[in-house]
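Notebook B, p. 112. Complex prediction, attempt 2.
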Amino acid sequence: MLAAAFLSVLAVMSWMPAAHAEDGHELWLRYRQIETVQANAYRADASQLIAGQGTPTQVAARDELLRGLGGLLGATLPASDSVTRDGAIVMGTAASSPLIARLGLDLDDVGAEGYLIRSVAIDGHRTTVIAAREDIGALYGAFHFLRLVQTGQSLAKLDVRESPRLKLRVLNHWDNLDGHVERGYAGASIWDWHKLPDYLDPRYTEYARANASLGINGSVLNNVNSNALSLTPMYLQKAAALAGVFRPYGIRVFLSARFSAPIEIGGLKTADPLDPEVRRWWRAKADEIYRIIPDFGGLLVKANSEGQPGPQDYGRTHAEGANLLADALAPHGGTVMWRAFVYSDEEPDDRAKQAYTEFVPLDGKFRDNVLVQVKNGAIDFQPREPFHPLFGAMPKTPLMMEFQITKEYLGFATHLVYLGPLYEETLRADTYARGKGSTVTKVIDGSLDGDVPGRSGLTGMAGVANIGADRNWSGSHFDQANWYAYGRLAWNPDLSSRAIAEEWVRMTFSNDERFVAPVVGMMMDSREAVVDYMTPLGLHHLMGRGHHYGPMPWDAGGPRADWTPVYYHRADKNGIGFDRSATGSNADAQYAPPLAEQFGDVERVPEQFLLWFHHVPWDHRMRSGRPLWDELVHRYTHGVDEVKKMRATWDGLSAYVDAGRHAQVSAFLAIQQDEAQWWRDASIAYWQSLNGLPLPQGQAPPAHTLGYYQSLSFPHAPGN
Ligand code: BDP
């Protein structure tokens, strides 16, 4: 009842003119003053703050509440030592707060990072406690409490109990030491390596706050295509300076390690993981790292993939490579995140099969402090892929999910594509590894195979960051939602992407229902739209070579076949699609039997994966009754139409958004519409050049000739 009353009051809450122009820099932590009536109601539940400031994390939590409530409610919250009035907030741990110790709350099972938020009475006064076992839990609780206010929820009768489902919740920065961000569309790297460690840009603290607000607890600072220099003393000092800024916010620093570092910076002749000198070198390196960064998280490694060095260079396995580093880090409690994104030059087979082929035989051979980090799909962060067949196939090995937040294959920074539904689709996918209900989430949170003897309890999720030096951090306002959604799902993979979108919209823009509902609707439809205008019905990897900008389905050149679109679509006069069934590469057999059968059967495969798993004639009958060709054209057009709809929706919402952000989103949607049309038209023109088929009735022909689309070139597209 009460909650409903609050929500209806909120319906009239509207955007308040900001003290300074909004440029997105404050992300979802804007803390702009809410409407007076509403603020008054909240003030009754936020009348004083009792919180320790004995540690940097306690200070961070207290400052955040003061800043947040001060901004949102437009009043300074008096701090005191005891509860003297209704509406007090008491925050801390049993160790930091005598009041919390006295309450005897049941904190046993919230874990080191969890918290409770509860409405209680203290000394006869209505009080909210934010209680945790460790300081970091209280900080997370503070952000949760603020989120309740930011999203207009009631503060009465609170009974929240939260703890993260995954242990490592990590951002992977693909940032080079020269400031370039690989696949970055938000400007240069935020790490100013040159001025570190002496100059600490205030952005580092803002970054840490934003991540802590989501529960992200790790940051891999440098690119997986790494430079061994990152492990030299000079760069370790720089990383240590960042670790110092992040520490109060519960974020540990990790580094990407180049496997051949013993040669490049150690002067050894080999990097063979079984060589005693190499082993000694890594042990000494780990000791050195931990002397400089005592709470260092560990190493991320891309090995024997796309030209990176690795154990296979010496005839050793991925497990032998990972264990080398794991043994060096183990005495210090460090973790190795060993990537499964591998495909070799020599292997002529289907690239989608290679990670499984190489890693499944290694199940059970990795040390306890190794996580194998697996991309969500078997190819490469495409607009839609079936979940990676490794999930569920390595019961003795903890697998860590790797999602891409930066939109390398989904329109860079200008396309509005909310990735929550993509993440959710993968996490909820059923692997059938141990019968029905064996979801990918259960694989990565360890619950599916927790009973496997000797299995380590490590769990984690990684997101390839979309953060750069742009004022708005992510290259566009809506791309902030992807950072946000990633973080929230890493904390709790069962959250719904729609609920996350709604939270984010309320915090980032407005609580006005007339704004929230249409914008959440746009976001939720946006992922399906991009699938339709770029790669409908299971098509994949059709983008421009190298930079990955725009459509290039005709591209057949370059150094390797499996980097070309023609390798993936296999279209000709008669049909289109990659046959991964038993008559083709048989990749579908890497899935558990019920799924393998479904994917392998052209009549039963979900249509969204039809051309991923099957090569079919252009007149293949679709469930809509249309022939495939007509359906394909229909999907392309539908994708473009969805973007037009998003534009119209956004145009109608200018009353609820500040002019600056509204204008930028509008301009980007216009770019997205043009580029969606380009994807549609170029793709259709190319397919027609192969199949010679007429367009279905009512479908507009491409605006230009195929030759025109083929003549376009973008040598300076960003992120390459
Ligand atoms: C691909 C990117 C490339 C990355 C690679 C990876 O195009 O820049 O280095 O993934 O994940 O998608 O290692």
